[in-house]
């Protein structure tokens, strides 16, 4: 299941809207430590950084998806330790 979610996230970077990789990142990070979430975030920032959709956004130069992926990776660690193991 984890591989399918990661593949959907990677495919949605190019073909889907911005919220599909975000949902995949959350789903991947909820159960286990997921470095794929950070990789999806980095690739998402590379692809969408020059986009005209985000050009008018106030945080255009900030790698938001990468930061969100790192926050999920490290921020959910106490939750995973407490409830899942």
Describe the structure.
- It is built from five helices and no strands.
- The chain has 85 residues and is mainly α.
- It has helices spanning 2-15, 19-31, 35-48, 64-75, 77-84.
- 72% of the residues lie in helices and 0% in strands.
- The mean pLDDT is 85.
Strand content: under 5%
Rg (CA only): 13 Å
Q: How far is it from the N-terminal to the C-terminal residue, by CA?
A: 19 Å
Question: How is the main sheet built?
Answer: none
How are helices and strands ordered from N to C?
HHHHH
- Choose one word for the global shape: globular
Mean pLDDT: 85
The portion of residues assigned to helices is over 70%
Supply the number of helical segments: 5
Structural class: mainly alpha
Low-confidence stretches: none
How many E strands?
Answer: 0
């Amino acid at each position: 299941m984890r591989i399918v979610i990661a593949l959907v996230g990677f495919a949605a970077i190019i073909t889907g809207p911005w919220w599909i990789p975000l949902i995949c990142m959350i789903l991947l990070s909820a159960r286990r430590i997921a470095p794929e979430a950070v990789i999806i975030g980095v690739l998402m920032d590379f692809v969408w950084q020059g986009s005209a959709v985000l050009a008018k956004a106030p945080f255009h130069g900030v790698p938001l998806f990468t930061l969100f992926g790192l926050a999920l990776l490290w921020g959910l660690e106490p939750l995973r330790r407490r409830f899942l193991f």
